[in-house]
Amino acid sequence: MPDSAVTFAPLETARFLLRPLRAGDAAELHRLVNDWEVAKTLARVPFPYPRDLADEWIASTAERIAANEAYHLAIARREDDVLVGCCGLTRDREDRSAELGYWVGRRHWGQGIAPEAAGRLARWALANLDIDRITASALVDNARSATVLARIGFRETGTGAQDFLSRGGAMPVRIFEAGRADLAPAPAAAVPSPEPAPGGKPILLVAAVGLIDPDNRVLLARRPEGKPMAGLWEFPGGKVHPGETPEAALIRELKEELGIDVTEACLAPFAFASHGYERFHLLMPLFLCRRWQGAVTPLEGQALAWVRPQKLAEYAMPPADVPLVALLRDFL
Ligand SMILES: Nc1nc2c([nH]c(=O)n2[C@@H]2O[C@H](COP(=O)(O)OP(=O)(O)OP(=O)(O)O)[C@@H](O)[C@H]2O)c(=O)[nH]1
């Protein structure tokens, strides 16, 4: 399945750039991390921290990004590229999860850097890697780190023990976890134009389409970072605006999102989803379409995939789509 991070484009936050580490970062990285107050909070960092290890570590991070295994990045100030710390994610492919870690140099503490950087990396990962959850741990004696995780949206799930190189043995840790629902945008953004519904959830009418190419493959689009359920794959489409028919909404959405022209006659009603989400009830007619004009182009920067019917189940999709996928697979 496609991951969109073979070469890593830096992630921006309000104040920082999360970018691959470079050989030239080694001296500053060593200066910041070779500090007992920092090293004692990190499981895999020895203390004292040998200068050569900074070079080796930086070289290894590039290899692991290229292999799509781990993303250990510099947190660099946007205005002057000064390194203030690092944050990273290590994937567990089988478990569809990743482990988050971060540290900030002592001279840069107290500015809210860790939640800004680690939060961005976590949201990016859920939107762009094929993972469903992110785990993290904090030493029981590191209340500051637990606060960072809570600010990002992590839930505490238990306690455990972890080996800490700097402490010379196993130490008690608090364990945290976050999934898509935990790291969703602020509730205001997550509520999709609710209509008043006394005594119940608002019904949201969304029109979607299974575009089918001449090889009988179906187009899926990935929900981008910043939207609820970011990272899940879905059928192209969108909300039906007041006064619009589902067909007109689809024709508009397909032009806006994919740059293609579709006529109503080419939209064949196929099935519908009716699914209760936490804040609304989704009613989503799914049309099928085999004919359109123009080349399918991801105009909103979304990842696209043409997927064979038998492979559809390998793509993580919103829960409302699961029955549709089964129907579509049988039909195609
Ligand atoms: N287009 C589409 N939306 C789906 C599918 N499955 C599903 O649950 N949905 C939900 O239906 C809603 C679609 O709304 P949308 O795409 O217009 O809106 P959005 O939340 O992306 O925000 P937007 O208004 O900023 O575009 C979202 O809540 C989305 O999660 C699907 O297969 N295709």
Automatic annotation (TrEMBL):
**EC numbers on record:** 3.6.1.55
Q: Which residues form the N-acetyltransferase domain?
A: 16-178
Q: Does the keyword Lyase apply?
A: no
The catalysed reaction is: 8-oxo-dGTP + H2O = 8-oxo-dGMP + diphosphate + H(+); 8-oxo-GTP + H2O = 8-oxo-GMP + diphosphate + H(+)
Q: Which UniProt keywords apply?
A: DNA damage, DNA repair, DNA replication, Hydrolase, Magnesium, Metal-binding, Mutator protein
Q: Which residues form the Nudix hydrolase domain?
A: 202-330
User: What cofactor does its activity depend on?
Assistant: Mg(2+)
- One matching Pfam family is NUDIX_4
Q: Could you tell me which InterPro entries the record lists for this protein? A: Acyl_CoA_acyltransferase, GNAT_dom, MutT-like, MutY_C, Nudix_hydrolase, NUDIX_hydrolase-like_dom_sf, NUDIX_hydrolase_CS, NUDIX_hydrolase_dom
Alphabetical list of PANTHER family matching this protein: 8-OXO-DGTP DIPHOSPHATASE, NUDIX HYDROLASE FAMILY PROTEIN
Family membership? Belongs to the Nudix hydrolase family.
* Name of this chain's protein: 8-oxo-dGTP diphosphatase
What organism does the record attribute this protein to?
A: Roseomonas fluvialis
